[in-house]
Design a protein that fits this description.
alpha/beta; Rossmann fold; flat; EC 3.1.-.-; six-stranded mixed beta sheet; endonuclease activity; single chain; ATP-binding; DNA_mismatch_repair_MutS_sf; 52% helix; MutS, DNA mismatch repair protein, Chain A, domain 3; 6 domains; Endonuclease MutS2
């Protein structure tokens, strides 16, 4: 994206506002580097991540960034094997804790809303609770090491405490003995040694070592000979304490170094999450929405607001471009809001292309453009001897040399700064050239010739900023489809200009021009309400369609759940009946054993009759249950190849791949299995749905066969164990109907990754495979697409 447009449209100010919501300097650096993305996929993914982050904030509150710091320098030092300072270790531990808590933060119960993009990003976070705990147990804060950091440190500090208590008792005793020679009856510390303040003329009376003197020279700070040994012992203990602390810091730094790849990855992900949630917090502050993003050049902004104007004063605008018309010509009075309209359209486009939600209403849409060009403002240059017209023309020449059908072009006062006749003709020619290229255009002008050009040219539409003649003030509202009316006569009349002068002026204008102006006024009055009603109707229609889709999905889910529950209930009933039959047989067997003890023939007949009745009752119950299960719903009379059917016995869907044979059986593709099923045992698929809905339902039916995770973790395994695990996992994933899975092998030396890659080359279930992208785990994972 060209830097001039970013500067003119004040894109940098939006980044400055987002930076206020970041927690770390590393995230601020990402914001500084942020620019519109250069492909549609990235734009949609980054917009989705912002939308998901905002939803998480609304649902779960503030994300767990407590104690987050920029640890890039500390991690870099650890990677080089340096021993880190306590503050650096604490900040790394805080970062690791943020990452671990984030995995808990995004966790959701089954059936709750998923957050695909952010969950994929967080998938790469590997909790290092042992390192985290080791650091927090050893370091109290950024300056103090805990006594519990090691048993040795605890013993040293206990001895140091005892020695300090002894030396204090000793020095207090000396203060009493030498009180006559002291400036004050108190002790102090110089160079980590206890000393007493002695009058300089009495130094001979207090034998000891002089460590310091006062500024006036009247006082000497002497360490009495009786304290020398105690002070030496304290100093020795302090050196041991320092050495032990350095050893503890080296040990903790070594732990960080031992997992440096994971630590760096966690730090990168936490920083990225900080950036994403900063965008979401900014979106919340301006009441923004995620627009629909297309690549067909369609812009449809509904009640969009310029994000840098005071929310209490900003007037929302609605503008659409790219369907019936690819160019808009905006006319109207000065200070009426034409330039603000241009800047709003351009800035909202840049924000959306950067994954930033925009301040507008739901159902707004923006298009992906490779470039947004803007010629806005007066940029005359004294140094380069360029007039206003020349500076504009220099920009326009650059735009014409580069614009194509993937460009959005914004012109402010096109053709201004020169002779009106020539300027208008030139403006029409420029607009026509860019229109033929397929560029999307929004231009403001004062020239009436451009109004006429827009009226007679297909694909070009007039628009205007409204002016209130009663108050003589602009309303700043944008009116689509209506060219601006000059209102010169009405304004002059209200300001007191004589009626005869206005009448003489009217006579000097052709009747056609006056009729045109009156037509504009009538159009303006009638169209404002019609346009507003039409936009509202379109919005309500979209909302109704979304609600319809939502409730159709819920209805299908309820029906599906009900059928599964019934099916499960019947299976449970069959299991209970089978267990009852086994129990009955056991009882009857026991009865036969009793018969051997001497029952009469009549008793034996009675027992046999009871046994027969019990088995008949159980068989009847089982038969009724089977019939009920078998004949639930209407069986199919005929099927055709490619038709989707439901198989009650397997509780899943399948696709017919052959016509019925002589036995009345058809071959069904169910997941990866091919099975033969009688035509009468098949049922119709649940309702007719769109292709998209059917795809979703088929996927759900496959997943019901078996619940399988979307990834397998091989870290810590040897090559043979890893191959076995992956082979078994791919079988299960294929049966479960998964399209794409992730194999986590870590980075390490690369041996495990190479082993898995060699295996995947010839595996029958594998369609393709690749290393993970940024946010997926990088070279530490392999993403496998299944057949």
């Amino acid at each position: 994206m060209n830097e001039k447009s970013l500067r003119v449209l004040e894109y940098g100010k939006i980044k400055g506002k987002i930076k206020r919501y970041t927690m770390t300097e590393a995230a601020k650096a990402i914001v500084d580097e942020l620019k519109p993305y250069d492909n549609l996929y990235e734009v949609k993914e980054h917009m989705e991540e912002t939308k998901e982050a905002l939803a998480l904030i609304m649902k779960k509150g503030t994300p767990p960034f407590e104690g987050a710091y920029d640890v890039r320098e500390a991690v870099g030092m650890a990677e080089k094997g340096f021993s880190l300072m306590p503050s650096q270790l604490v900040r790394i531990a805080n970062m690791l804790r943020c990452g671990r808590r984030f995995k808990e933060y995004i966790n959701h119960k089954e059936g709750e809303e998923e957050h695909r993009v952010i969950e994929d990003i967080c998938e790469g976070i590997v909790p290092l609770k042992n390192i985290e705990d080791s650091i927090f147990n050893a370091i109290i804060d950024e300056e103090e090491i805990s006594d519990k950091a090691s048993q040795t440190l605890y013993s040293i500090r206990r001895s140091l405490k005892d020695k300090n208590a002894s030396v204090k008792d000793k020095v207090n005793s000396m203060l009493r003995n030498y009180s006559a020679y002291l400036q004050e009856n108190l002790y102090t510390i110089r160079n980590d040694r206890y000393v007493i303040p002695v009058k300089s003329e009495c130094k001979a009376q207090v034998p000891g070592l002089v460590h310091d003197q006062s500024a006036s020279g009247a006082t000497l700070f002497i360490e009495p000979m009786g304290l020398v040994n105690l002070n030496n012992e304290i100093k020795e203990l302090m050196l041991k304490e320092k050495a032990e602390i350095e050893r503890i810091l080296r040990e903790l730094s070594a732990k960080v170094y031992g997992s440096i790849v994971t630590v760096k990855n966690n730090e990168r992900i936490v920083t990225e999450l900080d950036f994403i949630f900063a965008k979401a917090k900014y979106a919340s502050s301006i009441n923004a929405v995620a627009p629909h993003i297309n690549d067909s050049g369609v812009i449809d902004i509904v009640y969009g607001r310029h994000p840098l104007i005071d929310p209490e004063k900003v007037v929302p605008l609605s503008i659409y471009l790219g369907r019936e018309s690819n160019s808009i010509v905006i006319t109207g009075p000065n200070t009426g809001g034409k330039t603000v309209t241009l800047k709003t359209v351009g800035l909202l486009e840049l924000m959306a292309l950067s994954g930033i939600m925009i301040p507008a209403k739901e159902n707004s849409a923006v298009s992906f453009f490779e470039e947004v060009y803007a010629d806005i403002g007066d940029e005359q240059s004294i140094e380069q001897s360029l007039s206003t017209f020349s500076s504009h023309m220099k920009n326009i020449v650059e735009i014409i040399n580069n614009a194509n059908n993937k460009s959005l072009v914004l012109f402010d006062e096109l053709g201004a700064g020169t002779d009106p006749t020539e300027g208008a003709a030139l403006a029409v020619s420029i607009l026509e050239d860019l229109r033929k290229r397929g560029s999307r255009l929004v231009a403001t002008t004062h020239y009436s010739e451009l109004k006429a050009y827009a009226l007679k040219t297909e694909g070009v539409e007039n628009a205007s900023v409204e002016f209130d003649v009663e108050t003589l003030r602009p309303t700043y509202r944008l009116l689509m489809g209506i060219p601006g009316k000059s209102n010169a006569f009405e304004i002059s009349k209200r300001l007191g200009l004589a009626e005869y002068i206005i009448n003489n002026a009217r006579e000097g204008i052709s009747k056609d021009s006056l009729k045109f102006e009156d037509l504009i006024q009538n159009l303006q009055e009638k169209t404002v309400k019609a346009e507003e009603n039409s936009r509202k109707a379109e919005m309500y229609k979209n909302e109704a369609e979304e609600l319809k889709i939502k409730y159709e999905e819920k209805l299908y889910s309820v029906k599906d759940t009900r059928e599964k529950a019934l099916m499960e209930g019947r299976r449970e009933a069959k299991r209970i009946i089978a267990e009852a039959k086994e129990e009955a047989d056991t009882i009857l067997k026991d009865m036969r054993e009793l018969e051997k003890l001497g029952y009469s023939s009549e008793a034996r007949r009675e027992l046999e009759n009871s046994r027969r009745r019990l088995r008949e009752n159980l068989d009847d119950a089982e038969e009724k249950l089977s019939k009920k299960e078998k004949f639930k719903g209407e069986g199919l009379k005929k099927v055709k190849e490619g038709e989707e059917v439901f198989i009650p016995s397997l509780n899943m869907k399948g696709t017919v791949i052959s016509r019925p044979d002589s036995k009345g059986e058809v071959q069904i593709q169910a997941g990866i299995m091919k099975i033969n099923v009688k035509l009468e045992d098949l049922r119709g698929s649940k309702g007719e749905a769109s292709k998209k809905d059917k795809a979703v339902k088929r996927r759900e039916a496959k997943l019901n066969l078996r619940s399988v995770a979307t990834s397998v973790d091989l870290r810590g395994m040897d090559a043979e164990e890893a191959i076995y695990s992956v082979d078994k996992y791919l079988d299960e994933a294929c049966i479960a109907g998964l399209n794409e899975v992730t194999v986590i092998h870590g980075k390490g030396t690369g041996v495990l990754r190479n082993t898995i890659t060699d295996m995947l080359k010839n595996h029958p279930h594998v369609k393709s495979y690749r290393l993970g992208n940024y946010g997926e785990g990088g070279t530490g994972v392999t993403v496998v697409e299944l057949k």
